[in-house]
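The authors assume throughout that readers already know how a fold can be written as discrete tokens. Each protein is reduced to its one-letter sequence and a matching series of backbone shape codes. I therefore recommend that a typical entry be quoted early in the introduction. For illustration, here is how one protein appears when written out as sequence plus structure tokens:
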Amino acid sequence: MFDYHTCMTPTGDLSAAELLAAEESGVRLKRQAEVDGLLRLLAWCDLHSVDPQTQPGAVPHRLGGDRLVRLGGEGTPETSELCMAEFAVASRAGWIATSNRAAAALDLRHRLPRLWERVQRLDVEVWVARRIADLSRKLSRAAVEIVDISVAAAHDLTPGKLIELAEARIIEADPAAHRERITAEEARIGVFARRRRPGDAVADLDGQAGVQPITLRLPNAGAVEFTTSVEEVARALADQHVPDDEDDVPTMDQFRARAVELLADPYAAVRFLEGLREPEATPAPAPTPARAPRRATVYVHIDAAVLAGFATGVARVEDLGPMLLEQVAALLRHRSIDLHPVIDLNAGAAVDAYEHPAACKERTHLRTGGDVFPHSASRTRRLDHDHVTPYDKDGPPGQTGDLNDAPLTRRHHRAKTHLPYRARQLGLGAYRWETPHGLLRVVSRYGTTAVEPIRTADGTLVGEVYPARYDVRYDVGAPAST
């Protein structure tokens, strides 16, 4: 293992492998420093946990004296209110920022102990854990345990996915509180034009010379319908656009702006949309039929606890995040639902062709949730479906299927293709990666996990230590493929 502390060589003199080892070591050092900072702050809170009002000569609080306050959520110990001022000075930060940091640290130690353990083991970044602590602070101590168990078990997920998982568990733990949040937010809906400030007409940054920024706050269902309508009209405008010789082709953002302008005049919008209809030989006197409903695909994962009424079901909507079931119902109110047979994600199939079938791509996406390159946070469906073991046109049948399918962004696909990465699919939705300079990772629905190599004294790789959860589920003994 590369020792970052003892290396005094300028980085320009390090080899590629040494630079990678130094970077990995540097990441751990940075995380350890952040953990040490939280530990110092917790020790400071512990030193100031005695009620100042019990001390000799204490000034009553009504006269400005110190007192105990609970910074964290239910179940966290109280701390002296005024003690944060001095620690903020030492931290070179503000009082409020330091108090917020202390609240998260106390929540982690007393309300999210499993997550706190992962933070101390450097598996989860401090800022991610703090974000989860902040989001879950209003939950009771009993309810927050649901969040703690889930996020600690899923610590290898990327930060965005881990926070989204915590978000879903917070909703699940207290759906009544989430409904209150929805009601409060829906009371603030509206359309707001940003007020013009003096100088905006000629400002280089964030100016408003001839434009007017508008903010829309709509319920989720209304926002989805609005953006979908704008997209449909924008694409129609783009299809109808005939550029002149000197006309630059507008961007889709510009077409969307024109679509909003058109929709602002309903009569003009109706005339435009009517003009898109195919002409009929004999005009029909019947009224214009209603627009065909938009379509939606719903995947239902039914849990016995939900069916029995012991738990609240929370849905995840692509691009929108976790939602209560009634919110999903509102989204689907004006849409036609596509019903498909149950998709068994434990099953797979192979075909004698180069292109992955649509059904295979769908199963792979549902297993992986997006790009399977190590540490990638991309969850889009617009991915290349790569053959982990390269396709050989003269090879055996059945080379294309669930057990040889890796969704990758175009850049990650190019890196795998043109650089000496070694990849192997361990099973359905699980992949082993080795970078050109020997970094080992396993990617699955659990996230990205580092694999510890076992080497002899001369550096020869003789084995690997996989996370325990992969031992039974996946075959890890097959040879790697380039």
About this structure: The first helix runs from residue 16 to 47.
